[in-house]
């Protein structure tokens, strides 16, 4: 039975960085990824641009070359997948981890294609897999989309965009500019302050001039075949014609997977327990890396501020190995 030093779950930027650090330290590792390399980025909107500049997205000191001030999805795919090829990282793609359990100090990792054994496990799964559902009637209709890729299918359609974050604002602006009739349903009294600074004036001006309709302090209550029903905070109920709903309500980590792996989840935001000095969870030798660390607070961690997790984790493992040998 082969026993790996580290099994890494997730081939996103931080998972790749963990693998690179493991490789540098001659540790036997493998990455298990349910989709393609940097699968979450692959599923981003086709024309999305990052908030960060290229150098803040770099891993392992490898330059991220971009001709644009803010790199886009395509640039990131080329960069991260290029690193995986150049470093010849050990990655098993289109294989989902089903269960992580530990017995007699060794992890057994069950996947859709087999079983692995490892001394350490790093969970770097991000949060893009599970939509944050509104749990309202009609949310399961085919016209409701929780993932937005491009504006062209929505030309000349009546679109409702739910939310006021970057993804919602991008969807509203792009579909409007391709001829959609756009209505935004926003729980808050204004566009989110976290919206990219070069985009925020654009959406506010489009709303002010009436090109895009926005209902603030409003909540979507029901989705019907040809309409939607929403309520404003003054108690009024409105029904408008509708062809598609783009529910840009955010995404969540796979909390069931974390819990079933033995990780404690704390508070209303289900923050997973980990030691910030080592990234080790309450389960010894089981680590968290990247944005999954934030629980429901998905705005806390990004590529640029979680790149350090790889060095912290591998450093801790190497230190423990050295202690055990001595």
How would you characterize this protein structure?
There is one protein chain. The protein is of the alpha/beta class and 326 residues long. Helices cover 25% and strands 25% of the residues. It has helices at 13-24, 39-42, 73-86, 166-177, 200-209, 255-260, 303-306, 308-325, and strands at residues 4-9, 29-32, 91-92, 97-103, 106-111, 115-123, 130-131, 144-145, 158-162, 181-185, 213-215, 218-223, 227-232, 237-241, 244-247, 251-252, 265-266, 271-272, 286-288. The strands form 5 sheets. Strands 1, 2, 3, 4, 5, 6 and 19 form a 7-stranded mixed β-sheet that branches. Strands 8-15-9-10-11 form a 5-stranded parallel β-sheet, covered by helices on one side. Strands 12-13-14 form a 3-stranded antiparallel β-sheet, with no helix packed on it. Helix 1 (13-24) runs parallel beside helix 8 (308-325). It is elongated, with a radius of gyration of 22 Å. The two termini are 26 Å apart.
Spell out the key features of this protein:
326 residues; alpha/beta; seven-stranded mixed β-sheet; five-stranded parallel β-sheet; 25% strand; elongated
Largest sheet: 7 strands, mixed
Number of helices: 8
Structural class of the secondary structure composition?
A: alpha/beta
Identify the overall geometry.
Answer: elongated
Percent of residues in helices comes to 10-25%
Radius of gyration: 22 Å
Kindly estimate the percentage of residues that lie in beta strands according to DSSP: 15-25%
Poorly predicted segments: none
Strand count: 19
- End-to-end distance, in Å? 26 Å
Question: Mean of residue pLDDT?
Answer: 95
H/E series, N to C? EHEHHEEEEEEEHEHEEEEEEHEEEHH
């Amino acid at each position: 039975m082969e026993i790996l030093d580290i099994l890494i779950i997730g081939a996103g930027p931080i998972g790749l960085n963990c693998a690179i650090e493991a490789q540098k330290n001659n540790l036997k590792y493998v990455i298990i990824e349910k989709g393609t390399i940097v699968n979450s980025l692959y599923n981003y909107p086709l024309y999305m641009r990052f908030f960060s500049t290229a150098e803040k997205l770099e891993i392992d000191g490898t330059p991220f070359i971009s001709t644009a001030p803010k790199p886009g999805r395509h640039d990131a795919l080329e960069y991260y997948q290029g690193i995986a090829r150049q470093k010849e990282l050990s990655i098993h793609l289109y294989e989902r981890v089903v269960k992580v359990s530990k017995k007699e100090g060794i992890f057994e990792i069950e996947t859709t294609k087999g079983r692995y054994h490892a001394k350490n496990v790093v969970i770097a799964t991000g949060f893009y897999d599970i939509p944050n559902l509104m749990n309202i009637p009609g949310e399961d209709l085919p016209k409701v989309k929780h993932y937005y890729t491009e504006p062209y299918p929505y030309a000349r359609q009546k679109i409702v965009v739910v939310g006021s974050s970057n993804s919602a604002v991008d969807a509203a602006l792009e579909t409007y500019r391709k001829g959609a009739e756009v209505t935004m349903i926003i729980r808050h009294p204004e566009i989110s302050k976290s919206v990219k600074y070069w985009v925020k004036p654009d959406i506010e001006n489009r709303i002010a001039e009436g090109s895009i309709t926005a209902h603030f302090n409003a909540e979507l209550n029901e989705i019907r075949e040809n309409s939607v029903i929403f309520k404003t905070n003054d108690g009024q109920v409105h029904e408008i014609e509708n062809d598609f709903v783009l529910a840009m309500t955010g995404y969540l980590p796979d909390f069931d997977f974390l819990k079933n792996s033995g990780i404690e989840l704390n508070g209303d935001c289900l923050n997973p327990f980990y030691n910030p000095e080592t990234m080790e969870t309450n389960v010894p030798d089981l680590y968290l890396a990247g944005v999954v660390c934030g629980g429901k607070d998905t705005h806390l961690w990004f590529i640029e501020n979680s790149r350090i997790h790889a060095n912290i984790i591998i450093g801790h493992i190497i230190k423990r190995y050295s202690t055990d040998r001595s």
